[in-house]
């Protein structure tokens, strides 16, 4: 199949003038709904790791060490995400985007339901945390493939001038899933503490089964990406997408990882570590979970706004505004979080997640526009999930360790700002993709 024919069938050729066609609405709904369900499962674990898993699965440890161990299991899932991105990216680039999306959803649903059924440390001893880690790794592996497929199925169908907004539907699943997971866990946290730890926390995990069935019904109706169908797959048949990315585009991969790390460190700091630090400092547990729900709404709104702005002004300037705002708010966020006040923690996490949304909105399109069609699934997934492993996976554990060893937030704030400055430099070294033709990127 010739390059000319590939161009003729690419979304940038204006075959689609709008996102309002029935097919595009179905695609965007599938991208959003599937991603929301996946991130409901994934972020439910994040909230539970801050509030539940220490006494349930690490009861043999001192409270401070149990919290760090609980965050360690959280990190295991994030470490598995790049591996999931590589494996599912390979099949997504070779066989198509749609099939991957069905497999990842099933895998995530099964793992999450099993976590809800897992015996405690008091019942089976050390096997409990070991099984928890295994299931968390399965979760991370699944979401590692989900994000790339959900994002690309929308972006590669969209007209050129709407790619940023279309791709953001996969990212909108994260705050939507966070709203649902925090809301469900917050509801059951109203139970007496003993009942919440005994069985209440399990119900939101088990409800994942119903959500997955709904998501599969929608996802199976989605058609394959036209860019995938039109590019010359025969010429790429013997090539391994991962090796093509590592040898042909190592620079843009590294830059993509650094840029994506910015919003993921905000997530790890404000939403996960911040929740644990705030409640340990005296904030009300249920009130803190409600604040997380409100912050997810802020993240959702700002993601939509910034994605639309990126289609007008470009990905780089919008992301840059978010990174600068994050650096300026780093110390205020840490001080408000450790104040012991539920209201001040709410201010910290809502503003922090709103800033995260500024970066998150254009991020999916920014990463996808770095790579050619033949390796776009692998390249974009590896960049985003690699950043997830570093930025979100280890941030809560590193933050907890720094605060535990220094007794304050001074060093933690300095380290965070330094990371953001490094990532801002990477942003300006990466190419701007708003005007690029996806079919001709090499």
From TrEMBL:
<dbReference type="InterPro" id="IPR005828">
    <property type="entry name" value="MFS_sugar_transport-like"/>
</dbReference>
<keyword id="KW-0813">Transport</keyword>
<feature type="transmembrane region" description="Helical">
    <location>
        <begin position="380"/>
        <end position="403"/>
    </location>
</feature>
<dbReference type="InterPro" id="IPR020846">
    <property type="entry name" value="MFS_dom"/>
</dbReference>
<keyword id="KW-0472">Membrane</keyword>
<dbReference type="InterPro" id="IPR005829">
    <property type="entry name" value="Sugar_transporter_CS"/>
</dbReference>
<protein>
    <submittedName>
        <fullName>MFS transporter</fullName>
    </submittedName>
</protein>
<feature type="transmembrane region" description="Helical">
    <location>
        <begin position="133"/>
        <end position="155"/>
    </location>
</feature>
<feature type="region of interest" description="Disordered">
    <location>
        <begin position="1"/>
        <end position="20"/>
    </location>
</feature>
<feature type="transmembrane region" description="Helical">
    <location>
        <begin position="196"/>
        <end position="218"/>
    </location>
</feature>
<feature type="transmembrane region" description="Helical">
    <location>
        <begin position="343"/>
        <end position="368"/>
    </location>
</feature>
<feature type="transmembrane region" description="Helical">
    <location>
        <begin position="32"/>
        <end position="58"/>
    </location>
</feature>
<keyword id="KW-1003">Cell membrane</keyword>
<feature type="compositionally biased region" description="Basic and acidic residues">
    <location>
        <begin position="1"/>
        <end position="17"/>
    </location>
</feature>
<feature type="transmembrane region" description="Helical">
    <location>
        <begin position="409"/>
        <end position="430"/>
    </location>
</feature>
<dbReference type="InterPro" id="IPR036259">
    <property type="entry name" value="MFS_trans_sf"/>
</dbReference>
<feature type="transmembrane region" description="Helical">
    <location>
        <begin position="64"/>
        <end position="88"/>
    </location>
</feature>
<feature type="transmembrane region" description="Helical">
    <location>
        <begin position="252"/>
        <end position="275"/>
    </location>
</feature>
<feature type="domain" description="Major facilitator superfamily (MFS) profile">
    <location>
        <begin position="27"/>
        <end position="434"/>
    </location>
</feature>
<feature type="transmembrane region" description="Helical">
    <location>
        <begin position="100"/>
        <end position="121"/>
    </location>
</feature>
<dbReference type="Pfam" id="PF00083">
    <property type="entry name" value="Sugar_tr"/>
</dbReference>
<feature type="transmembrane region" description="Helical">
    <location>
        <begin position="287"/>
        <end position="306"/>
    </location>
</feature>
<keyword id="KW-1133">Transmembrane helix</keyword>
<feature type="transmembrane region" description="Helical">
    <location>
        <begin position="318"/>
        <end position="337"/>
    </location>
</feature>
<feature type="transmembrane region" description="Helical">
    <location>
        <begin position="167"/>
        <end position="190"/>
    </location>
</feature>
<keyword id="KW-0812">Transmembrane</keyword>
């Amino acid at each position: 199949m010739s390059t000319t024919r590939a161009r003729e069938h690419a979304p940038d050729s204006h075959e689609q003038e709008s996102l309002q066609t029935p097919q595009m609405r179905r695609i965007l709904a599938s991208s959003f709904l599937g991603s929301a369900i996946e991130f409901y499962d994934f972020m439910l674990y994040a909230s539970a790791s801050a509030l539940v898993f220490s006494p349930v699965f690490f009861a043999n440890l001192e409270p401070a060490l149990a919290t760090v161990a609980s965050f360690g299991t959280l990190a295991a899932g994030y470490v598995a995400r790049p591996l999931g991105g590589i494996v599912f990216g390979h099949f997504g680039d070779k066989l198509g985007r749609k099939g991957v999306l069905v497999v990842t959803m099933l895998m995530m649903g099964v793992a999450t339901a099993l976590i809800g059924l897992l015996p405690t440390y008091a019942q089976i001893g050390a096997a409990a945390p070991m099984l928890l880690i295994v299931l968390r790794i399965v979760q991370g592996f699944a979401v590692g493939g989900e994000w790339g497929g959900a994002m690309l199925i929308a972006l590669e169908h969209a007209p050129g001038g709407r790619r940023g907004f279309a791709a953001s539907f996969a990212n909108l699943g994260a705050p939507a899933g966070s709203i649902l997971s925090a809301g469900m866990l917050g509801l059951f946290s109203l139970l007496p503490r003993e009942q919440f730890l005994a069985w209440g926390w399990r119900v939101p995990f088990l409800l994942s089964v119903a959500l997955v069935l709904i998501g599969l019904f929608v996802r199976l109706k989605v058609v394959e990406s036209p860019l995938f169908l039109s590019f010359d797959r025969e010429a790429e048949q013997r090539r391994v997408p991962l090796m093509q990315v590592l040898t042909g585009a190592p620079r843009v991969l590294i830059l993509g990882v650094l840029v994506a790390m910015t919003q993921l460190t905000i997530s790890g700091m404000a939403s996960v570590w911040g929740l644990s630090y705030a409640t340990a400092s005296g904030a009300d547990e249920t009130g803190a979970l409600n604040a997380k729900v409100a912050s997810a709404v802020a993240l959702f709104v700002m993601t939509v706004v910034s994605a639309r702005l990126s289609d007008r002004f470009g990905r780089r300037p919008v992301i840059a505004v978010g990174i600068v705002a994050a650096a300026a708010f780093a110390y205020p966020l840490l001080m408000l979080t450790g104040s012991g006040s539920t209201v001040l923690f709410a201010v910290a996490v809502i503003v922090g997640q709103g800033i995260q949304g500024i970066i998150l909105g254009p991020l999916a399109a920014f990463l996808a526009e770095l790579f050619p069609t033949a390796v776009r699934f692998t390249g974009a997934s590896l960049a985003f999930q690699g950043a997830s492993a570093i930025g979100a996976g280890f941030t809560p554990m590193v933050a907890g360790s720094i605060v535990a060893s220094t007794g304050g937030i001074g060093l933690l704030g300095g380290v965070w700002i330094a990371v953001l400055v490094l990532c801002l430099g990477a942003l300006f070294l990466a190419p701007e993709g708003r005007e690029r033709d996806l079919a001709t990127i090499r």
